[in-house]
Amino acid sequence: MSWKRRIGRKQSINQNPDTSQLKTNAQIFNKSEASSARTDTINTMVAWFLRSGSLILLTVGIAKLLGSFGNDGILDQDDPVFKVSLRFLTRWVGSLEILVSIICFLSRKHGFSAALIAIMATDFAIYRVGMMLTGSHRTCPCLGSITGFLHIPNVLADRIATMLFLYLIVGSYVAVFWLWRTGVLFGTDRTVSATLSKVVSNE
After folding, report:
1. Strand, coil or helix: what is 78?
2. What is the rounded average pLDDT for all residues in the chain?
3. Does the global pTM surpass 0.85?
């Protein structure tokens, strides 16, 4: 009896060869749709980060530049890391941040923009390590002296600068890794790059 059942099952499979193939194709299609949706979601997140990261650099750069023209006596003191006046340093770094943010806003090479933000964030990290190595207890002048104008306590200003720094360095490294993985970092994947451009243009 079991022998006849086996033969019947084989005959049923042979009579419907397209059924299993259709199921396989459906599974492949579903996986492809899920993968495409996940890729679009990550592309959207990367696009938003590039915009927000550029805006942060622009805002902080303007704050540094405006603050460098103030009368705060601390601006005439030497920076513990670079040994130049804080007034000169904030003007130079602020101008650089504004320049980088403008390039990121105008550039359609998303991998290049992500790399620029990653480089700036890495420079901030190196500067903070330098401050710790010199034993300086001064708060990081990342936001310029504009915090004094807004009556923001130094401790709160340093926390805000730290959060912005962490957002930039983590977000930029994740964006660079994703764009490198998808081939956009060096401009080889036009599909993902086009998706990013579409997301940015629709903001």
Report:
1. strand
2. 76
3. no
